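Final report, closing paragraph on structural work. Over the funding period we assembled a curated collection of sequence-structure pairs, and we close with a single example.
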Amino acid sequence: MAKKAKKQQPGGTPATVALTAAGVDYTVHSYDHDPSHPSYGEEAAEAMGVSPERVFKTLVADVDGALTVAVVPVAGSLDLKALASAVGGKKAVMADPALAERTTGYVRGGISPLGQRKRLPTVLDASASSHPTICVSAGRRGLEVELAPADLAALTAAVLAPVGRA
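Its predicted structure, as stored:
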């Protein structure tokens, strides 16, 4: 007997579809995105009332010519040298935003580490493991998903490494 395909929930994103398909426990948080806010991640933390150390931003970098995803707390920044080292590379620079959008299938400020158009090597900042759950973009501005860091690491085949800077 053939299995019926699961219907995508209204308003679902590739990230939430991937989480549902994997059977992972997660919670979706939505808020009204303010385009004038200077930081997508800080806006998410404020809107959800969650510590910025538990809200992680998804950044796309170019490591020796290969796009690589870094997931770091919004309270800090990405250490490009540490990112390169974590994936065995020599040099990392931030990727061109248009290339990051085309490759992941998401818009800047809404790039999720989950459900990307093309699966990229991913590094999750080691600080994530100090929290029972963290929040990452669910694939659109104003939409976050909260899940266990171990689940995020497993679904993205992420390397855990200290790549965030306070």
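The beta strands are 27-30, 56-63, 66-73, 77-78, 92-94, 122-125, 134-140, 143-147, 159-161, 164-165. Residues 97 and 108 are 7 Å apart (CA to CA). We thank the funder for supporting this effort.
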